[in-house]
Amino acid sequence: MVNIYFYIVEYFKYSPKIIQFLWALSAVFVLIIISLSIYLNHLRVRLRAKERIKAVYQKKYESDLIEYLYSGNEVDEISYEQQIIIDYLNKCAKSSLKRKIIISTLLKLKDEISGETSDAIQRLYCQTGLVHYASSKLKSKKWDVIAKGINELAQFEIKEAHNDVIEHIDHPKREVRKEIQMYSVKLFRFDGLEFLNILTTQLSEWDQIQLLEILQKFESQNMPDITKWLQSSNDSVVSFALKLAKIYNQYEAKEHIVALLNHSSQEIRIESITVLSNFGDIDTSVVLKNDFNQRSIEEQVAIFKMIEDLNDTSDIPFLLEHVNNSNFEIKVLATKILKELNNREDNNIRLITTDIEYSEKTGLIKAS
Amino acid sequence: MNNSKKIVLAEDNSILALLLKYKLEKEGYTLLMAKDGKEALELIELNIPDIILTDIMMPFVSGLEVISHVRNKLNLSIPIIVFSSSGQEEMVLNAFNIGATDFMSKPFSPNELIIRIKRILFNKTIFDKTW
Is B3 part of the contact surface with chain A (CB cutoff 8 Å)? Predict the structure, then answer.
């Protein structure tokens, strides 16, 4: 054994430098692999133990919750049995792990049921002091902690935290802002949109879609006054207000939408045209036709799309004027509307196009 | 009358299952609990319950497979109430096509579930007496 050791030492000593380096490197790798294996094994054992502990506590909290729900008396007072459970959960909530398990247990049931049982779970959340832990997260310096706190308050429908939550409405992190928007709309429905009054950061397209999706689920569709949002200095708020106007037919806001036809943002001008078209506002169509040439190509296309929906024979001269427009989309729309008018009104419209290639491509010009 | 009525409840959410168990037992029903579709099928074959309550999404065997097995393999006309979550509207339609009796969309009120069970069992009793 000693001989082998000396042989290895001698071999290493008299080997070329490169071989010595490679042996040393191999030894380092072997050591790393061994230590990593030990660490991973330790980690696995720890995680499994944690899972076991979690499963035990979860089972315990599940039965506590059921007992709490069934030991209540008819009047809204807390029974003796309920108070014991509240005190026990309050004590457990001091540990971060146990707190997480209690919250996940409450949510596991709250997400599946409605009615008085759901209200009782919400009450238990407040009685056990868990609401204070979530509220204290709002004071954290870490954005993810704030976002999680708001999310939890929204899930348990804690309306009382509104003032503390809304303070973060212009938080630099988009995730926090998104949670606040969801909190406001989920809990306060259309009234929750009041955050738009003070929002100075951008409301992304995805945020807008999510808000609209939540709003559509509510039975009551009483829309608050959107005119102040149409006049907002935040373009994303104006854009969202236009979407609301379109979906909920806010015809009373028409004057403010017409004013947006001269907004500094082209996107808002186009969206305004689309909304007015949706309202069936022929007066605007006349105004837009008059200053057609002063508008960008995108707006011109939007105007033609508007005329496509709202047209009559008085549009024919305007359409004929643009049959040979340099923009292909406008040209096609003009021809298409003329063809439709021709079929509907039984007019004899003769189209003269100088672009032979266009006529061949579209095959639309069949009016005589 | 209710004392003898057996209900198979197939639900993988342990706490919801526990809540419904207590609630329905309080109403006098006998509950046979299954945490997945496979266990539910075994309980159904073994006990022939009066009504089946099943979640649509479950491990191993789904709620749809449970309905299909009861209707096509066992040829039983036991009423089946399906629990669905939002976004599973297509699955609910499939459930009705293969023989579900009723459905409840989550989150649901346990009290409403009890009313539906009572109504379905009452209708079934009248139907059985008539025919």
Answer: no
